[in-house]
Amino acid sequence: MCGIISVIDRKKNPMDGSAIREALSIMNERGNGEGSGYAVYGAFPEFADYYAIHVFYDNLIEPKTAVEEELEKLGMVKHEEEIPTFEQPNLKKRHIPWRYFFKPNVMALGTTASEEDILVYLMKKVNTTIPGALIYSTGKNIAIFKAAGWPEEVADFYRIQDYEGYIWLSHNRYPTNTAGWWGGAHPFNLLDWTVVHNGEITSYGTNKRYLEGHGYVCTMHTDTEVVAYLTDLLQRQHNLPAELAFKALAPPFWDEIDRMPEKERILYSALRMTYGPAMMNGPFAIVVANSEGIAGITDRIKLRPLVAAEAGDRLYLSSEEAAIRVMEPAPERVWMPRAGEPVIGRII
Amino acid sequence: MPIGSVPPKYKVTIDNDLCMLCERCIENCSYGAFRREGNKILINSRACTGCHRCVAMCPRDAIDLEEKPVDYRSHPIWSREAREAIYKQAESGKIILTGMGNTLEVPPIFDRLLLDACQVTNPSIDPLREPIELRTYIGKKPRKLEIKKNAQGDIDLVTKLAPNLKCETPIMIAHMSYGAISLNAQLSLARGASEMGTFMGTGEGGLHKSLYPYQNNMIVQIASGRFGVNIDYLERGAAIEIKIGQGAKPGIGGHLPGEKVDEEVSKTRMIPLYSDAISPAPHHDIYSIEDLSQLVRSLKEATEWKKPVFVKIAAVHNVVAIAAGIARSSADAVVIDGFRGGTGSAPRVFRDHVGIPIEAAIAAVDEKLNKQGIRNEISIIASGGIRDSADVTKAIALGADSVYIGTAALVSLGCRVCGSCYRGLCPWGIATQREELTSRIDPDIMYKNVSNLINGWTLEIAELMGAAGINSIESLRGNRDRLRGYMLDENILSVLDVKTVGAGA
Questions:
Q1: Which residues of B touch A275 (CB under 8 A)?
Q2: How many CB pairs under 8 A join A and B?
Q3: Which of A300, B82, B118, B266 is most buried per CB count within 10 Å?
C-alpha cells in the first residue's frame, strides 16, 4: 500500500512545494516512513535546455570522480552543485545528492545517437559499473527529491517549498522489497518521463524481458522503472499517441474488444497482439508525467485506488480524495476513473 | 545359437472365483493373450503389452496384471532393458523399434520448477469472479504499430496484421497422421479441439474428407514425403506446418508400413494401396536454411498469404540458431519438439538418446529471439512430454506461446502408453487401421473426452494464473520471475534464467 498525489497546472502557472507536502502527509496511513519523494517540472528555468542529472553519491571520492570522468567524455557540464539538504532528526544524509546540468555531445559515442541515447548510455554505464553512484533522474528542467523518510521529513530535508513548477508528483511509500534504500523511493525518472506507482507488477518478468529486447536495462531493482521505460518505448520510440500507449499497458478485455465496432475492434486487437509483452498485470495505480502533461492509469480490474479532480486549470490525481482536498478544498469535479481508463491532463 | 526366451514383461492372472466367463477379455485383446478352454480362460502372459484393455473391460475386476514378474539379477549398469536389447539384436541383427516417448529415467525439468502465488502484497484474482484471459494468437506480429490521426482527429491504423490463429486456450493438439492413428481417433481429436476453440495438426497423412467439417481448426502438415499435399489440402487448413524434424527421432525420417495403407489411407495420402509410405530424413528440396525460407514463401504464395506457416523442428543442440534462422524467414511460428516427444514408431536409440529437453530449448530460443528484439514477432509452440496443466503453465512461463499435446490427447481416448503403437494392433482403436479395432472409438462420444481434458487443463491454468495475480496469458509468457528452480544445478538455472527456490524478487 502506498499513497500518490499529483497535480498539473495546465496553463503552467507555477506552484511551490508546500501544498503537496501537506497533501502527501495526510496519507501517512498508506506509508511507513521508509520512502517518500517528490518530482517537479519547471524547476530549473535558468538551465531549461540542460539535462538535470541527479546522482546519489555514497561518498565524494571514487564514485564522484568516476561519474565526472564519464560526463566529461560524453558532453559538457554547464553547472553542478550539491543539492541543498537540511538534516532532520530522523533523516540523515546517508547519500550525498548532487546535480549536474549537462549538454551531451551526440558525436561522443561515434555512432548515430540522439542526445537521449547518450543519456540512456550514461545512466546504464553509471548504474551498472560505478559502485557508490546512482543516477536517479536525467530530465530537462525536472527536479527529483527523494529519501527514506516520512513525506514531511523528506520535504523538509530538501526544503521543497523553495522550488516551483507546473507539475508535481509525489509518493508515500510502504516498501516491501527494497526497504530503506533511497534509490528505491519514488518518483522514478527517465529523461522526460517521471513515474509514481502504487502497487506491484506481476508481469514484471515479461515486461523486463521485452524491454531488454529493445535495449533497455533495468537497474533500479524495482518493478516501477518498467513503467517509465515502457512509456518511453511506446510513446517516444514508437510514436503512439498517449491514450493508445496507455491502453497498451492496461488494455480492454477480449470480450469487450469482440463487442466493439469493426474499426475499433481491429485497432485494439492489433494493439494487444503487437504489445502483449508490454501489458502490465497486477494491482497498480500509476501517474506518469512528461513536460507536456500527466496521465493516471490503473490496472484492468482496478485493484489500487485512483481519484481524479479538476479545479480551474488544475487536474489532480491521487490515491485519496482527502489528499486532493488538502490542496484544493473545493474542486469543481471529483471522479473515480474506470479500471484501465487513462486520465490525461495536458498543458494548454 | 539360440538363447531362449527373455522373461515375460507382464504376468496376467484371472481370479476364477470372480470371472463369469463373459469372454470380453478374449474379444478385447488384439494381441491374443486370452483364450477359452472349457470353463476356464487361459492366459498367454507373454503376449501382453500392458495396454490394460482387458482390465478396463472386465465387468468383474477379475483380471490382475503385474509388471516384471521375473526379474534379472540386479545390476546398476546392466539394466533389464540393456540386456534384453542385446538378446533381441543378437537374434535379429536389426534396429530396435519402439513407440511413445523417451523411457530414460531422467527427471523432467518441469518437475523441478515451481510456480508462484500471491500473498498479501498483491491480491490473487479469483477466476470465478474476474476474467482470466487465455486467448492466444499464433502467428507473426508487427514490431510496432503505425498510427495516423485522420482529419476528424480519429486514430487510423496503418499497419496491416498478418493472419494469426486465434486459440481460446494455449493448448493445441499435435500432429498425428491418419495412418499412424485411426480416422476415428483423428475425428475425436478434431471435434474436441474445435469445441474448445483450438487447433489440431493433421500430421503427414493428408486430410481425410470426413475431417473437412473441422478444417477451420486443423493445421495441415507438409513433411518430407509430401503425402496428401495438393492445393486443395493447403487451402483447407487453417495454417500450414512444415515438419523438418520430430523430438522422438530427430534427424531421421518416417516409415508407415504397407499393411496400414488400406484403401482410405491410400486415397488420403495419395499413394498406391498397401505401399510403404516412406518419409525421407531430409526434405529433398531443403538442404539449407535458404531452401526452407523459399518453401515457406512458396506455400504463402500458393495460398495468397492468407495462411500462417509454421516450421517444426526437433530440439537439438543447435536449436537456438536454427530457430533464429527460421524466425528470419517468412514463417509465422516455430514449433520445437523436445526429446520426450512421442511417436508411433521410432528406433529406440533415437527416441532415448537424441535431442534435448523441451524446457531448455524453450528458454534458450526465447532468450535468443528476445536478445535480437524479435521475440514477439514470431510465435513459439512447444511440445514433447507435456503431461498436465502445470507443464503447460511452466512452458509458457519459460517463453512458449502455446503447446502441442500428443500423448496426453491420446491418453484421453484411453491410451495406456503401452508403447506398442508400431505393431498396428492397438486394442484402444487408436494406433491401428483394423476396422474391428478402430470401431472401438465412436468419435461422437469420444470427442468429449478430448474437449473435457482441454477444458480441465484450461480451468487449472486460469486458477494458477489468478493465484499468481495475472489475468492475461501475455503476462505469463516468458515471465520467468514467477518460476523457481528446485534441485536444479546452477548451469541449468542459468540456461533457464530462473532463480533458485528461496531467492526473492
A1: 145
A2: 124
A3: A300
Output the CA torsion sign for A262, A265, A271, A272: negative
Would you call B130 an interface residue with chain A, using a CB distance cutoff of 8 Å? yes
Best of B148, B154, B156, B474 to disrupt the A interface (most A CBs within 10 Å) is B474
Cβ B479–A267 below 8 Å, yes or no?
no
* pLDDT at B153 > cutoff 90: no
pLDDT in tens, B401-429: 999 999 999 999 999 999 999 899 999 99
A46-105 residue pLDDT tens:
999 999 999 999 999 999 999 999 999 999 999 999 999 999 999 999 999 999 999 999
Contact A209 B371 (CB under 8 A): no
Q: How many CA atoms lie within 13 A of B149 on its CB side?
A: 8
Distance from the Cα of A297 to chain B's closest Cα (Å) equals 17
**B333-337 and B379-383 beta bridge pairing:** parallel
Q: Rounded distance, CA B175 to CA B244, Å?
A: 13
**Which residues touch B53 (CB under 8 Å, ≥6 apart)?**
B28, B29, B30, B416, B427, B428
> Is there a contact between A277 and B478 if contact means CB atoms under 8 Å apart?
yes
Check whether A275 has a pLDDT greater than 90.
yes
Partner-chain contact A204 B479, CB within 8 Å: yes
Give how far A211 is from chain B: nearest CA, Å. Answer: 9
Active site residues of A: 2
Closest-CA residue to B171 (of B199, B195, B194) = B199
Q: Compute the 3-state secondary structure of chain A and give helix, strand, coil in percent, each to the nearest 5.
A: 35, 30, 40
Query: Tell me: the pLDDT tens digits for B383-398?
Result: 999 999 999 999 999 9
A271 vs B135: CB contact, 8 Å cut-off?
Answer: no
Q: What are the helix and strand counts (H, E) for chain B?
A: 15, 23
β-strand pairing of B346-347 with B97-98: antiparallel
Measured CA to CA, the distance from residue B505 to residue A218 in angstroms comes to 13
CA distance A80 to A100: 4
Shortest Cα distance, chain A CAs vs residue B451, angstroms: 22
C-beta atoms of B125 and A275 within 8 A: no
CB of B479 within 8 Å of a chain A CB? The answer is yes
For residue A178, name the pLDDT band (cuts at 50, 70, 90). low
The pLDDT assigned to A220 comes to 66
**Cell numbers that stand for B267 in this block:** 486415397
In B385-489, alpha helices (H) = 389-398, 407-411, 435-438, 443-467
**Distance from C-alpha of B424 to C-alpha of B437, rounded to nearest angstrom:** 10
